[in-house]
Structure formats: C-alpha cells, structure tokens
Amino acid sequence: MNRRLLGRAGTQLPMLAVAAVTLYPLYFVVITAFKTQGEYRTNRLLPPRHPTLHNFHDAFRDGELFRWMFNSAVITFASVAVSTLIAVVAAYPLARRAFRGRTAFIGLNVALMVVPPVVLVVPLFLLFVRLGLINSRLSVVIVYIGLLIPFSLFILVNFFATIPRSLEEAALLDGASTLRTLRHVIVPLSAPAIVTIVVVNAVWVWNELLIAVVFLQDNDKRTLTAGLTFFQGRFLTNDPLVMTGALIASVPMLALYMVGQRFFIRGLVAGFGK
Amino acid sequence: MAGSGISTDAARREMESASLKPRARRGLRWWALVVPAALFLGVVFLYPLARLVQVSLHSGPNGNEGPATLDNYRFVLDDPIFRQAVRHNLALLLAVPIATLAAIAIALALHAGIRGWKAYRTVVFMPYMLSVPVLGSTFLFLYGLHGVVNSILGDVGLGGLAQDWWGDPHWALPSIGSLVVYHEVGFGVVLMLARLLALPPELFDAARVDGARWWQVQRYVTLPQLRSVITTYVVLELITMLSWVFAYVYSTTKGGPNFASYVLELYIFENGFTFQLPSFAAAVAVLLLIPTTLVIMLWLRRSRIAEVNLE
After folding, report:
1. Model-level pTM?
2. 3-class DSSP state for residue B260?
C-alpha cells in the first residue's frame, strides 16, 4: 500500500474515533428525547423506531421549563449587557491613558479573572440575606456582572491598545469629548472584540450552576441550568424526559455556537492564548 | 503616516496642554470611567474575600460572633469528611495530564493538515459549549448499570468489565474525572491549534527540508512553540480541578456514594447553605484559596498576560 495513504489513514482513523466518542453523548441526548420509555428500555443504542414528541409535551406541560428558560434569558441578557457596557467604558482609559494606579488595576483584574466563584458565595450570600435580595434575579445579575468584568475588561483593554492612535486623535482634534470618541471611533473599530465577549459571556452565564443554585431557590426563580438538575432529580427513572430537558436547554447554546463559533474560539484564544 | 503628521502633532499638543492641568485631576477624570467596573469588582470580589476571612475566624449564623479564633480551621482540619474531600480533589488532578496530552495529540493531528480539520475542531470543541449539568445527566445514563457503556462492553465480549460506574465507591470519582476530561479537552485543542496556526509555515519547511522525521519536527520545532499555551492550559485546569468541579459533582453523584466523590466545593456548599454553618464553609474556602492563589501568582509572574503597552 502507498505509504502516504497509510500515513493519512494513520491520522484520519484515530481522529474519526475521537469525533465518534465526542459526538456519541450528544447523539444519545437527541435520540433518547424522541423515544418512549418503553422503547428506551429495549433500545438504548439506536435511533427510535417509533419517534414520539410525547416527551416534549410532558416537559413543557407544567410550564416551569418555559419559566426557567425565560429566567435564564432575562438574567443572561441583563448581566451580559451591563457588564459589557461597564467594561467598554473602563477599558478605554486603561488601554489609552497613563494615570496613577493603572498598571496595578490591570494586574488586579487579571488575577481576579481566575478566582473561583465558590470562595465568594458564602460572604455574598450573607450580604444578600441582609439586603433582602435572596431569591431575587437582581442578586444573581449583580454577581454575574462582577464575575464577567475581569475577562471582558482584559479582552477589551488588549484590543483597544492595538487601535492606531491617529484615528482617535483626529476625533479629539475635532473637539469630540472622550465618551464621544469612545462611542464613535473606538467602539465601531472594536466590534469583533465586543461580539466575542458577548458570545463567550452569554454562554458562561447561561450554563452557570453554583451561583444560580445558591441564590435562586424558589422553583419559579430558577435558571434553566439549575432547573435541569432539579428536573433530573424529580424524573430520575424517566431518562427520555430528562434527556428532553437537556436537549431543550442545549439548543440555544448549540445555535449560538453554530453562528458564533469563530467569535467564541477567538475570545478564548485572545484571553488565554498569550 | 507622513500625511497625518500635522494633525497628529496638533492633537498631541492638545492632549499635552490638557495634561498641564493639575495631574491629580487628570488622573481622577480617567478613574471616573473605571469606577463602575471597580465598584463591581469591589462588591463581588474584594468585599467577599475580606469578609470570608472574618467569617472563617468567628462563629454564628452571620460569622461575626465571639472573639477571633482558629477553632473553625481546627474543626475542619480534623473532620474526616474534609480530609476525604481534599484527597478527592487531589485525585482529580490526574485528569490534568490526561486532558493535556489528549489536547496536544489532537491539536498536532489537526495541524498536520488532515482533511476536514475544521470540522474536527468544531466537533471536539462542542462539549465545551454545553452546560455541565446537561453533560452530567447524559453521562449519568450512559454510565448507568444498564447504560450504553455497559451494554457495549457486553456486546464486545468484555461484559466482565461492566461496572456500576456511579454506584461503586471505587468508580464514582473516576467517572466524574472522565466527564471533566470530556468537557475540557476541546478548550485545550482550540488554544493549542490557534497557536500552531499562527506560526510561520517556513518554520516547519526548514526542518522538513533538513530531512527531519515527523515526530522529530514535533519534538524539536512544534512542542517548544506550544510551551506557553500548554502552561496556561495546565494552570487553568489545575484551578478547575481544585475549585471548579462543583457542577460536575452536583449534577451526577452529589458526592456519593457514601462520600466517595465528595469534593471541597461540596463541603463549602453544604456547610454554608444546607447546614447553615457559614464559618466552617468560610474556613474551607480560605484553605482552598491558598493553593489557588499560589498557582495564579506563579503563572502571572511567568507569563506576560498582564502587560499592556500604551504605545
């Protein structure tokens, strides 16, 4: 056999195996969501012989899944929008101006980027109990905004620093204020970086579990990710129904992945590829 | 940029004249834009970190009663469940070399110009996009007693290897480890592949012209170029195994059976919120912060990640 062909098969075959192992769990979620419990008992491996939408009907019947999805959407939107705005405004002077404390702030920000949330939840919980903010979506939005800022700020500061100074100086010369220059010159030029942090952060918030479980304990306040672990506990013997919930929770993120894959990859690489 | 010389000079003069104002005031003006971000960092990171230490040194439901004492630390350090949790987090560190080697191998294979490498990258990265609870409940079923893994083992004549993956105390933690690796490998592949794609192709051509074999090129040309990315990935994964596995455990075993997969985050979670003993939870959180901070500091000192040039 041709040696080059053999070499090609030598990398293709293992990669096909890797891809198969990676995709199998996702395939399992999809095929199981369309099976009845009866069929699932006798056929776990193969696609359903008699596909059914029954599980979707059941999953949505109580309305709680809609409620959780709505909560997740609101919380994700609010925390990503506010944290992005705050980070854009703060990143501008940090990337562009020399002032006292700038370097220290950037260093602190990078260190905070990797502080695990689990060490913050106990004091935050005590604080929010005192403020009467437990079981309020506002509490998790505040926490998420804070947690998203270090990564967003880091990406934006590095991106703003690469924009040619001459563009900004022209605007300043025309008498534009700092904020106008930021809005009309820097932000349009930074669209790729901003889209990147929006995508990465939206996925992170949508998938977050610990903070959602700790701060939102009422059933109708839960996020979809937290609700799913609850759903799983309640329907432990009904695998197809749990997989239907998992599929429903994953569809928005898979859609976002298909559309924004390059932004997502670019964001992680820009953040940690240095 | 000769053409823009004049306007640039004028703008610079403008900026310089602005900087003739009292320096402190200029600085304050820039800080004003940073304040909202600083405020959130203060509320969500700095205040909780300070309060954490206070709670860990006191008792009571608000963690502020009595004189400062190390009793909470003494209690948790003597608690066999805490020690078991530490051992489990340390055991999970084994997932770091596994995930790293797998990521390196896959990144090298995809960089070798394999047909369809972009499609492979999309596939390998997909688990990283999904929430851990989604993957947790899926693996709960796949690794179930009558799940797909056991039935495949049976079909290929390896039925003797079938296990009660989640119910057997010996297998619960490795099962969680495999789930972590499944979720995290794609992130490593993406990081490393991006670095490889950014390298000039001549780098590899030169070695190949010299008659180096494929593995020699990898060993002496490719891997050295990957060093800093691999370090970053290893650091992030070390931190993940120590203090970011809550979702994996909570969505599968919840620490069971009989504490066989109990981890430090679960100890913090249960003491802090289920048993309402925030002081024990805080003491463990402080203990957890020590190795995490050490790893972060070492990494920050070695990498240039925090440097931003003004020009």
Report:
1. 0.90
2. coil
